[in-house]
Amino acid sequence: YQWDGDHDAYTPISKMTGVEFNSLNAYMVQFAGDLTWTNVLNEGPASLAAKRNSDEMEQYHLRLELQQNGKEQDRTFIQLQEDEVTTAFDFNYDLCKIINKGANIYSLIATDRDPIEVAGNVLPVEEAIIPLGIKTDAAGEYTFAMPEGTDGIVVELIDYENNTRTNMLLDSYTVNLEKGTFDNRFALHVKPNKTTTSLEDINTNSN
């Protein structure tokens, strides 16, 4: 639950995607594992009340978009958090990717066999290089962008073929791609850094 000060109430919200679960709406969700519901009683009348978690953990949330002609075609989510998460596939946290028509972007989790394509990748709060995958059904110019920012951490997009690194806080990255699958060309280099939240902070920290 996230506190909504404007309406003086708590709103259920997904930590991974940022989606708000509003009353009287239906949602399709993916979940693997055990689910436990706990009723928390408010003091006084026997009404249910949500309470904030007093032990807020360190976490960072990233949304990476794949755009074409200025329009979002797909997106993938990365979350770094202090919890019982690993760099492997965690059933109660990571979300498998469902490939749709058009352009697709996802991160890849290594296994003993083929890597797993995921739409939401939850990782420990530490520096990491996260492999990305792209599938396109048409050749064209595609742009990687993070319009919601980098949540206060350093994020670079790596293009191994062009030997480039792009600071996603400062810029987007555009590239021409043929129709096909690109699972070994791109990656995200993420480095948690609470003090780096703006261009001014980056300039200050580099001096």
Keywords:
207 residues, 11-stranded mixed β-sheet
Question: In a nutshell, what does this entry contain?
Answer:
The chain is mainly β. It is built from 1 helix and 13 strands.
Describe this structure in words.
Helices cover 4% and strands 41% of the residues. The protein has 207 residues and is mainly beta. The strands form two sheets. Strands 3, 4, 5, 6, 7, 8, 9, 10, 11, 12 and 13 form an eleven-stranded mixed beta sheet that branches. The radius of gyration is 19 Å and the shape is globular.
Tell me the layout of helices and strands.
Elements: E1 2-4, E2 9-11, E3 59-68, E4 71-81, E5 95-96, E6 104-109, E7 116-123, E8 128-136, E9 140-145, E10 154-159, E11 164-167, E12 173-177, E13 180-191, H1 199-206
Q: What average pLDDT do the residues reach?
A: 81
Shape: globular
- Over the alpha carbons, how many angstroms does the gyration radius reach? 19 Å
Uncertain regions: pLDDT < 50 for 5+ in a row? Answer: 40-54, 195-207
Main sheet summary:
11 strands, mixed
Give the helix/strand class.
mainly beta
State the end-to-end distance.
40 Å
Q: Element order, helices and strands?
A: EEEEEEEEEEEEEH
| Estimated share of beta-strand residues | 35-45%
* Helix fraction bin: under 10%
Number of helices in the DSSP assignment: 1
- Overall number of strands: 13
